[in-house]
Write a structure and sequence with these properties.
This protein has helices spanning 16-32, 74-88, 109-119, 147-153, 163-169, 186-197, 219-233, 238-256, 262-276, and strands spanning 2-10, 37-45, 63-68, 95-97, 123-131, 143-144, 159-162, 200-210, 293-295. It is α/β, with parallel strands linked by helices and 296 residues long. Strands 6-8-5-7-4-1-2-3-9 form a 9-stranded mixed β-sheet, with helices on both faces. α7 (219-233) packs antiparallel against α8 (238-256). The chain is globular and about 55 Å long.
């Protein structure tokens, strides 16, 4: 079984310690499961030759590095990585994960998830929760996921997909994500689209993957994009229609609490309603330009 990981980090952003922790957790998986073929595709943004960060010689055979001398949106960076990985590493039965640079895998979690994919060839999508104090996985079995579970809990850090699903989805929406005007939710969009075409999806309602805890101070930042994505996918899903109404209610509270402006809220409602009556399809691979992108 192949394990392929997709991640990006801004070298100039002072996150080298977090990135080193993530890389070390991936290396620990390789040490625990030497029969796994593991490849981490990593795009280093705002990179210069003087800074290689935590990527030392011991990791050269583990990491496929791509560099950019400028900053990219998160969705753009992931698409560059996905194209490279689909060309050289992701097969129909690969297990694919998308850790942020400040994510980490406690002992046993990824090995256990890979075993779930091996043991049930119908599982295409698996996800759980995250926490700064993740609990031991201990071979926990999740339940059949619901689309609302995906909308509320699937994130880049906690979503694992079979290669066949990743290859069908092809790419993230580059109009979404950190670094774009719609600051976030590209991972939620990708996961919901994957759920809709998965044969089986499993949700483990436990925080087994490490990541900083959700910060309520950031909810106003991510609210517009998250609401838009739910609206986009609600046109053929009754549960997401109710979830969209819930998001509208949450937005009204954010206005009352002065976390977002009334104008921003009304604009979000308009965009989400328009998206809910649209039939926009998931983006497909185009010929991605590689200006200032270099493979290492």
């Amino acid at each position: 079984m192949d394990l392929v990981l997709i991640s990006t980090s801004n070298v100039a952003g002072g996150r080298s310690e977090a990135l080193a922790r993530m890389i070390a957790s991936v290396a620990a998986i390789r040490a625990a499961r030497p029969e796994l073929t593991i490849k981490l595709f990593l795009l280093l943004q705002e990179y210069d030759v003087k800074s290689c960060g935590p990527i030392t010689k011991e990791y050269f055979d583990l990491i496929h590095v791509i560099t950019s001398d400028r900053r990219l949106s998160l969705s753009r960076a992931r698409n560059i990585l996905l194209e490279a990985a689909c060309l050289s590493a992701i097969t129909e039965n690969s297990v694919v994960a998308f850790p942020d640079d400040d994510c980490w895998y406690p002992p046993g979690i990824i090995e256990g998830v890979v075993s779930r994919f091996v043991g049930n060839p119908e599982i295409d999508l698996w996800f759980c929760k995250y926490s700064s104090k993740p609990v031991p996985f201990e071979n926990k079995t999740g339940r059949r996921a619901k689309i609302v579970d995906v909308a509320r809990h699937a994130s880049s850090n906690t979503t694992v997909m079979r290669g066949r699903l990743v290859r069908r989805l092809a790419k993230f929406d580059e109009e979404l994500g950190v670094g774009t005007p719609r600051n976030g939710a590209e991972d939620t969009d990708f996961a919901i689209a994957g759920f809709k075409i998965s044969r089986q999806s499993e949700f483990l309602d436990v925080p087994c993957i490490g990541h900083r805890d959700y910060d309520k101070k950031l909810r106003s930042k991510y609210y517009p994009a998250a609401t838009l994505v739910i609206g986009r996918h609600s046109h053929d899903s009754l549960p997401l229609k109710f979830e969209l109404i819930r998001k509208f209610a949450i937005g009204a509270l954010l206005v009352v609490w002065r976390e977002i402006s009334l104008m921003s809220y009304l604009s979000t409602l308009k965009d989400a309603v328009n998206a809910s009556i649209s039939t926009k399809q998931a983006p497909k691979f185009s010929h991605l330009k590689r200006n200032n992108i270099n493979k290492k």
